[in-house]
What we know:
By secondary structure, the protein is α/β, with parallel strands linked by helices. Helix content is about 55%, strand content about 15%. It has helices spanning about 15-25, 30-40, 55-75, 90-100, 115-120, 130-155, 165-180, and strands spanning about 1-5, 30, 85, 105-110, 160. A 5-stranded parallel beta sheet has the order 2-3-1-4-5, sandwiched between helices.
Amino acid sequence: xxxxxxxxxxxxxxxxxxxxxxxxxxxxxxxxxxxxxxxxxxxxxxxxxxxxxxxxxxxxxxxxxxxxxxxxxxxxxxxxxxxxxxxxxxxxxxxxxxxxxxxxxxxxxxxxxxxxxxxxxxxxxxxxxxxxxxxxxxxxxxxxxxxxxxxxxxxxxxxxxxxxxxxxxxxxxxxxxxxxxx
Length: 182
């Protein structure tokens, strides 16, 4: 089983992936590793870190191939054999493309339509040295991306979990949604 976790930055994707590892022993990989590899080793594809609109679109073929290859390495006879792929390039469109390949899949998308600059500042290493304007712009971008993701999930029938004030409860709902669909 492949577990896909998508959403914009700073909404809890990595925390949810760690929950699956801690509780169920399911290993995984953040898509940041895939983006870094493509940015450095194959810059001609235009996949790079950042908040640009085409990041997920450019990375999608590589993400789909990574997930397909990972699924092939799993033991189909073991219902507990799984792998988590999480990151901001995991989109409903990518999940649909992976599902169309017949890959056993459970996915959930996280968002935060009320993200504040204070929440971003709680992880200073992420925007190390950024000014107030940058924090405000990124927080607004995450809120906009969360709204668009919620709409895409509603249209496509994917699970979307809003992680605003009740972050811990929301993560528990997201965890349940992933394991129940598995």
